[in-house]
Amino acid sequence: MPPRVKICGLKRPEDALTAARAGADYLGFVFFERSPRHLTMTDAVRLRDRLPHGPERVGVFVDPDFALLSAAVDALDLDWIQLHGDETPKFASLVRARFGLNVIKALPVATVADVADARRWYGHADALLFDAKPPATPDALPGGNAVSFPWELMKGQDIALPWFLAGGLTPDNVAEAIRASNAPALDISSGVESAPGEKSAEKIEAFLKAAKSPI
Ligand SMILES: O=C(O)c1ccccc1NCC(=O)[C@H](O)[C@H](O)COP(=O)(O)O
């Protein structure tokens, strides 16, 4: 079965449509002011009725409060909440209970010990997203940095939740990433952009083609 694919950091309806037509399973929307992919609530409300039906909608947040989550859930009719900060398992459980939505917890990975951290989230999250640790620079974002971790760290891991491989994926390296990691799902943002925050239709199509039919 081909991996499921999340195209993250969408801001324009035409990019969401391209992703859906090309076979994306999830569309990701970032609510983090410092990101070039940040969606204001006004833009989110405008986007809602212009989004394709089919792919599930994921809101991406960094240590959010419930007011932000509530506004974004309503604005985009979200299916999933992705927690991409320093949230605790208890907070993830509270989010699930409050909104009745699925939660993806992003985990920063550099070593195999970071992958083992997955266990802490069993019973609290519905899926995990293994992403590279952000670079140690003041302007680095918690995600969306176009940085990979060694994909082989995931091979043979017994992860008891659905999981995404993320970080530095591109149309050119995704076939190798799937081979090396056996990932059941993939997440990409920078690798389908022409500039930070600007999605490229050609790259979205190329990524989905390569991800859904690796050689
Ligand atoms: O993409 C962002 O700008 C972002 C900002 C703050 C927190 C999370 C963010 N992205 C989350 C994602 O799921 C990205 O798709 C993931 O980190 C992979 O990004 P990339 O390496 O650019 O493909």
Automatic annotation (TrEMBL):
<keyword id="KW-0028">Amino-acid biosynthesis</keyword>
<dbReference type="InterPro" id="IPR044643">
    <property type="entry name" value="TrpF_fam"/>
</dbReference>
<keyword id="KW-0822">Tryptophan biosynthesis</keyword>
<feature type="domain" description="N-(5'phosphoribosyl) anthranilate isomerase (PRAI)">
    <location>
        <begin position="5"/>
        <end position="209"/>
    </location>
</feature>
<dbReference type="InterPro" id="IPR013785">
    <property type="entry name" value="Aldolase_TIM"/>
</dbReference>
<keyword id="KW-0057">Aromatic amino acid biosynthesis</keyword>
<dbReference type="InterPro" id="IPR011060">
    <property type="entry name" value="RibuloseP-bd_barrel"/>
</dbReference>
<protein>
    <recommendedName>
        <fullName>N-(5'-phosphoribosyl)anthranilate isomerase</fullName>
        <ecNumber>5.3.1.24</ecNumber>
    </recommendedName>
</protein>
<dbReference type="GO" id="GO:0000162">
    <property type="term" value="P:L-tryptophan biosynthetic process"/>
</dbReference>
<keyword id="KW-0413">Isomerase</keyword>
<dbReference type="Pfam" id="PF00697">
    <property type="entry name" value="PRAI"/>
</dbReference>
<comment type="similarity">
    <text>Belongs to the TrpF family.</text>
</comment>
<dbReference type="InterPro" id="IPR001240">
    <property type="entry name" value="PRAI_dom"/>
</dbReference>
<comment type="pathway">
    <text>Amino-acid biosynthesis; L-tryptophan biosynthesis; L-tryptophan from chorismate: step 3/5.</text>
</comment>
<dbReference type="GO" id="GO:0004640">
    <property type="term" value="F:phosphoribosylanthranilate isomerase activity"/>
</dbReference>
